[in-house]
Write a structure and sequence with these properties.
Structural class: alpha+beta
Radius of gyration: 14 Å
Strand content: 15-25%
Helix content: 40-55%
Largest sheet: 3 strands, mixed
Number of helices: 4
Shape: flat
Length: 94
Amino acid sequence: MDFVCLEKMLVIEIDGGQHVERQALDNVRTEKLVNAGFRVLRFWNHEVLNEIEAVKERIWMELQKAGGTHPHPNPLLEGEGTLYPIKFIDHPKP
């Protein structure tokens, strides 16, 4: 997870070439996030580097759709209520 807005329940993923090989793992993580109440936006590195205005517009539009606050996910996500970022344990161990 590259960025998260807990208030709007929005996760932004920026994917590079390694994500082509990790597609199945990314899909599982996205499913977990969606099941926890998050919306997930994915962008490729080249989009962020070469089309930043379009990326910002897409994020802005998604935030506008969010409107009011969302109910708290139940059960709480790991790391919630701490000063540390949310961690998901679905990455392969080297």
